[in-house]
Structures are given as structure tokens and as C-alpha cells.
What we know:
Keywords: Chromosome, Methyltransferase, Nucleus, S-adenosyl-L-methionine, Transferase. This is SET domain-containing protein. It is found in: Chromosome; Nucleus. This protein is mainly beta. 3% of the residues lie in helices and 23% in strands. The chain contains 2 helices and 13 strands; from the N terminus they run αββαβββββββββββ. The strands form 5 sheets. It has a 3-stranded antiparallel beta sheet with strand order 1-3-4. A hairpin with a 5-residue loop joins β3 and β4.
Amino acid sequence: MLAARGSASLVPAHPAHTRGVHYQDRFVPARRPFSVAHLRTQFNPTGVIFPAVPHFGSCDCEDPCRVGRCHNSLIQLYCNVNCCPYSSNCGNGLVESTKVALARNVVTRQLAVVAQEFIAAGVILGEYLGEIEHVNASHAASPRHEGYLLVMTQRPETPSHPVRVVVNAQQIGGLMRFVNHSCAPVARFLEVVNGRRTTVVVATTHAFYEGDEITVDYEPDLWFVCRCGHANCCHRDIQDKQDP
Length: 244
């Protein structure tokens, strides 16, 4: 339902996922920056209310749910205890994965989110958390993903004037805030809903292994110079330019 945000300061300079590379060979464990407060749920100080989207009973998955396979996921619903035989402890739930961690690339010194063990495709790794804010939605000032601002597709319920909702993770956020861009990503951003709760998650599109970096594609209209280093990089024509 949406694209994603990013930051030039977090863009890796080398391919983000090389199978068989051990965690300690390319990455070392990193501490969260003290300047970024840690969130465990969305911070909604203005009380933004999204339209209610009901679930339709249990998804009845015989195996633990996966994004793109679970009946809930196919209609962009995340699993919770009311509609999942696994009580949302599955690949389509919102619980942040313990299989990923914050790390620092030993070559570029950039922060990244890296797998600590094998992770299958179709698994939600966590929410993109931050402060929920309103932005102008007029045609003359169309909101755009930039920095740590992620523009959501879902509009708030009955706004008094045209607005869009953004998740601002500049100063507060969760682990998914540190996911970097790549032109050959292993995950994507998804906007999901259940009841009154609408949120953004990072979900894997490929299986990957210990030492692989979790990356997403921030789409063609980048606000930074892509330096993912992939052989099929879509932005090779701007590699010699400076970040704006």
C-alpha cells in the first residue's frame, strides 16, 4: 500500500546481502544511538484515528501464517489473537522478530539491521515506529517520503481539512528505522490494518541467512544518492553525485 522512507546517512556502500558471509565478518553488534528514543508502539500524541477495518474470523492457517499466503495477509490485515490460530505468534503478526539485530558495517561504519539466523520469506520483522503526524495533502504541496518521514496511504477518519498521515522516526523509533535501501532488497514496507489500528511493517520477500542485511527498495524517486553497490543498481548514473 505504500513506499518507504530512507536516509543518505544509512545507505550501505556495498551489496547488502551475500549468502555464506558470517555475521562477524562484515558486521559487528552496535548500540542504538542515544539521540534516538526507543519505541515499542506508535507514538500518537495528536490522537489520529484511522477508519475501522474488521477482521473476518480466524485465518485457519494450518502452518504458521506467512505474508502473501495467510488469508488475513491477502486482504492486508495483520494477525492478532482474535483472528489467528497461532495467537498472532506467526509471520503475519506485529511482534518484533528476535532474529534480527542492529549492527555496524565494519567497512562503511554505517548502521544496519542484520539477520542473526535464517529467516524465511513472508515474515513480518517488525513495525516502522515513530511519531504519528499530520501533513498537508493539497495538490500544491503533496507530501513525499524523505529523511525518516514515511507517508502512509491510509487517510485519517473524517479529517476537517485535506491531510495525510506520516510516521516521523527522526528522533524516536524502533529497530526497523535503521533498515537501509538497496536496489536488490530482501524485504519491503507494507501498510497493514486490523480494527482501528493501521501501521507499517517490514516484511521479508526472500529467505536469508545469518549475516545478511535487511534492505528495502525506496523506489525510483530517491532523495539521496543510492550507493547500494549492486550490479543491477537502478541509479548507477548518479553514483558520482553528492547527497543533496
